[in-house]
Amino acid sequence: QVQLVESGGGLVQPGDSLTLACAAPGSSVSNYVIAWFRQAPGREREGISSVCLGGRAYYGASAKGRFTASRDNAKNTVSLQMNSLKPEDTAVYYCAAGPTCGTLNTEDYSDWGQGTQVTVSS
Predict the structure, then answer these.
(1) β-pair type (57-59, 46-51)
(2) Per-residue pLDDT averaged across 3-12, rounded?
(3) Interatomic CA distance for residues 93 and 56, integer angstroms
(4) 3-state SS assignment for residue 77
(5) Strand order in the sheet with 5-7
(6) Secondary structure of 20-73 in HEC code, one letter for each residue
(7) Fewest CB atoms less than 10 Å from the CB: which of 18, 30, 35, 50?
């Protein structure tokens, strides 16, 4: 079991960029596949990206072309760079840890952070 903590959320305007970070206090993110999900009010949790141990990232349809996930093992974090944000990107963003890379199914991830709110509004 690993504790995960997300940070970097906030209120931004449409078109802005934002970078989220997922840290694992007391553990090493380099030992886990880390995925990013988001959940908007009234909607199911949606997979954004799955980052493999070696750094390769897989993306869901909503993230392709605008979001980039990457590891920084020196900082013990996995980041999600989000560009050209839209109001429909408003959601709580979660990171999760699991054993299998490339899947964006919530049931494949056993440990979750508390989430960080991202609000895109003018």
Answers:
(1) antiparallel
(2) 97
(3) 20
(4) strand
(5) 5-7, 18-23, 77-82, 67-72
(6) EEEECCCCCHHHCEEEEEEECCCCCCEEEEEECCCCCEEECCCCCCCEEEEEEC
(7) 30
| Contact indicator for 35, 53 with CB cutoff of 8 Å | no
Q: Which two tokens stand for residue 38?
A: 């988001």
pLDDT digits (tens, 9 = 90+) for 55-105: 999 999 988 789 999 999 889 999 999 999 999 999 999 999 998 999 999
Query: Is 90 exceeded by the pLDDT of residue 8?
Result: yes
Residues with Cβ within 8 Å of residue 98, at least 6 apart in sequence: 32, 33, 35, 108, 109, 110, 111
* Closest by CA position to 73, among listed 39, 36, 104, 27: 27
What is the C-alpha to C-alpha distance for residues 98 and 111, in angstroms, rounded to an integer?
7
